[in-house]
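Entry type: protein chain
Record version: 2
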Amino acid sequence: MELNLKRPLLFFDIESTGLNIPADSIIELSFVKVFPGGEQRIKTWKILPWDYELNKQRPINPEASKVNGVTDDMLVGCPRFFEVLPEIAQWLEDSDLAGFNSAKFDLPMLAEEIERARVYAGVDCGIDLHSPKMVDVQNIYHAMEPRNLRAAYRFYCGGKDFDNAHTAEADTIATYEVLKGELDRYPDLLKNDVDALSAFVGRRYVDFSGHLIFNDSGDPVINFGKHKGKTARQVFETEPSYFSWIAQGSFSLDTKRQFAKLEEQFKREKLAAKFNSGRLF
């Protein structure tokens, strides 16, 4: 079954130096962009992982190399992420997103690299990854038939296997095929619509690492540590220094930015309240 799309759906997959989002980097990024009507465009970048603070190439974790087959020497001469970000942003523009387990890893890692480019290299592409709908094909798969991408491909795509698993491009294309197979297999359970499919992502996170989540009322809530369960506004009112602790801590740049945006909002609202009550001076 072909996808029923109102706007482009961008399937993507990442290979990286490791699994620690604040401390690792993208080494390969692949996009398969599917347009309303079924047209497909494919683009893959090999990327030199860059440590902005040490101003040198970031080494690949040997365990990661065992999985993705990429070694440090294979990336020498490749562009750094911020150098290809303008082109990446063009592919992301006006698209919803899809991937396999991407909501937990690929999307936060991509957001982190975009933030690094903005903070350290001064390259701001104007892309907000919190805005598009996100279809995580793995979540649909696990809801219907819990397993992994290779098994999903065999199950939904006629029992066949696919070559070059754990290369970004092969995994991305396989993910696109799996989603179409899921729609064919569950026509009565799955609506062929990105809004409905993106609902399988589950709880909506304010930051991609899940340190902030929305409660049922739509308020940002702390999701870890001593303030878990409290709204960000409550914490700001009782312990405003907590936001400075986040800014100085070992959190992802996306997490720091979302806390900073909330802090700025709360300060602005507090100042407006004082002004309106005549207590500003």
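Comment: The radius of gyration is 20 Å.
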